[in-house]
Write a structure and sequence with these properties.
The protein has 7 helices and 11 strands.
């Protein structure tokens, strides 16, 4: 039975090549995935995803694998950068495809709506029966409209305008002439009066509001505060590969979110029995998590931050190490890791 599964169909060639190189490194080292997990500090589940092409390994995992297998770190990270760009392009193409599908669906829906206008007469606002020959609002087939005058095949020539008070043309609607100049002047005058009334009402309302504020309790005038910037506008820009920050990281896997590797440091540690527990903190992600190594199956490690009793827990299941999901923490000062060993022994890291 082959050791590796077939890579997913449609995987970018550069990502596929990089994944195959990772598989070759692991094969040449003679290590199992569990051993790679134990020596790099990244979970077995994560390495299975990396080596099967379902997830691009973060840079920290690549650096750790290079150390474990004795590979030149610079060469491997160069190949990782190419694969990372290819992975980003694939995600962008996927997003553009989904957007095109949504636009196509929207156009189809609007097209169906326009083919069934209100009234059912083939044009908006139409009414049944108005297009019949001889109707009051209809016109015969083939008729064309020339500046308001209806003409059909063989129709006699008629004048395009009529003088004031002239008789309407028999058999058809009266062509509408231009409105008299006096009517336009009256319309403009009414519009001017209406606009002046609206402006005057707005000024009266504004004066009333100002007078009410000035005459309030204590004679203090209320000053409108400028709106505070939205959280999205002030949110920090995360580096490439980092997928969360602050509260958004709580409960998430630090490896999958890209908070490990070069973005993490150990800020506190303690020994409980034979196990080593550490507080791992990422300033970039504003989050902390706990890691336990040299442990036994059944040992647990827990992370809390800011004096809160709630936190995240990780358990050693098959290997000798485990780590917890993340908790949001603006700094590393309040983060604390505690371990409960299968033997019943407990202990915590000191709080800075």
């Amino acid at each position: 039975m082959p050791r590796w599964k077939a890579l997913p169909e449609g995987l970018d060639p550069e990502v596929s090549e990089f994944t195959s190189q990772l598989r070759g490194l692991v094969d040449r080292s003679g290590l199992s995935i569990a051993a790679v997990s134990d020596r790099t500090g990244y979970s077995k589940t994560s390495w299975e995803r990396y080596l099967n092409g379902r997830l691009l390994a973060p840079k920290g995992a690549i650096v750790a694998l290079a150390d474990v297998t004795g590979t030149h770190q610079g060469h491997l990270t160069t190949m990782w950068e190419l694969a990372e760009r290819a992975w980003s392009r694939s995600e962008m193409r996927h997003d553009m495809t989904m957007e095109a599908i949504r636009i196509s669906q929207a156009r189809s829906a609007l097209g169906e709506f326009s083919q069934n206008p209100v009234g059912g007469s083939g044009r908006p606002g139409g009414s049944a029966g108005t297009d019949a020959p001889g109707g009051s609002g209809g016109r015969p087939a083939g008729a064309t409209v020339d500046f308001g005058v209806m003409r059909g095949p063989g129709a006699p020539s008629v004048p395009q305008q009529r003088g004031p008070g002239g008789p309407p043309r028999p058999g058809g609607p009266s062509p509408a002439g231009p409105p008299p100049a006096g009517g336009r002047k009256r319309g403009r005058r009414r519009m001017t009066i209406f606009v002046a009334g609206v402006v005057g009402a707005a000024l009266v309302t504004a004066a009333a509001v100002l007078l009410t504020d000035i005459g309030g309790d204590g004679g203090e005038q209320t000053v409108a505060e400028s709106p505070s910037p939205s959280p999205s506008s002030s949110a920090p820009v995360l580096p490439a590969g980092v997928k969360c920050g602050g509260d958004a990281c709580t409960g998430k896997d630090p490896e999958e979110m890209g908070c490990g590797g070069e973005f993490v440091e150990t800020v506190a540690s303690a020994t409980v029995g034979t196990a080593l527990i550490e507080v791992r903190y990422s300033k970039t992600c504003s989050a902390a998590w706990a890691r336990i190594t040299q442990a036994a199956v059944g040992d647990e490690v827990r992370i809390t931050a800011g004096g809160e009793t709630s936190g995240q827990t990780g358990e050693v299941e098959t290997a000798t190490n485990a780590y917890t999901p993340m908790v949001a923490s603006p700094d590393s000062a309040g983060a604390k890791a505690c371990a409960t060993l299968a033997s019943g022994e407990t202990g915590c890291t000191p709080v800075r």
